[in-house]
Amino acid sequence: MLNKAVAIIVSGGSGKRLGADIPKQYIYVEGKPILQYTLEKFILSEYISEIVVVANVDYIQLASEIAKGVNSEKEIHIVEGGTERYLSVYNGVKYVFEKYPESFVLIHDAVRPNISDYIIKEVVLALNTYNAVATAIPVKDTLYLISKLGIEVKDRESYYAAQTPQGFKAKMILAAYNMWLKQKCFIPTDDISVYCYAYNSKDVYIVNGSIHNNKITYKEDIVWFESLIKAANNY
Question: According to CATH, what is the number of the domain 5-136+162-232?
Fold first, then answer.
């Protein structure tokens, strides 16, 4: 029997790189906000029991309205985020752990609306064996490390690009964050890095991501996602 799996949708981004007036997860694409597309993917997955949306305090009302407007039999909870992504994740994980200490959590960016149910399934199933699961794809481009000494070409065969969802046993990632918060010796850009700080990185299992599981960051990404929606609707 699978443990309860709760999706934590991190919805605290500002949209600065997109040049938008509101955070990009609230931008409408073909009649719906991006956050709604993301929510619907997790609502439809049989592997997810509940959903937690972690939102910036200034947008909690908007996130709540979007969640209420989605057709869902699953509970969707809105939790106040922190000033940084990692603090928002921490708030979300604490919320889940207090309700379901033995649960799995899948931490996902609100601005990855094209996540597939196959990836969600693979992450949840892997958590029955592993304490931490990363979603990633092999790097296809040549990598340069640029410094004052010049350019160093890196072996791309050893590199993967991280995606979300990233899955954990709730008690393990909460403990990892508690350890990290005592030191704050680096600024984490994802949650696997916090887990690896606290535990052995060899414990992390990698699930194959997808080039279609793109993170909406720039205006070009909005155009890309809009084209996907139009193609799906046979425009």
Answer: 3.90.550.10
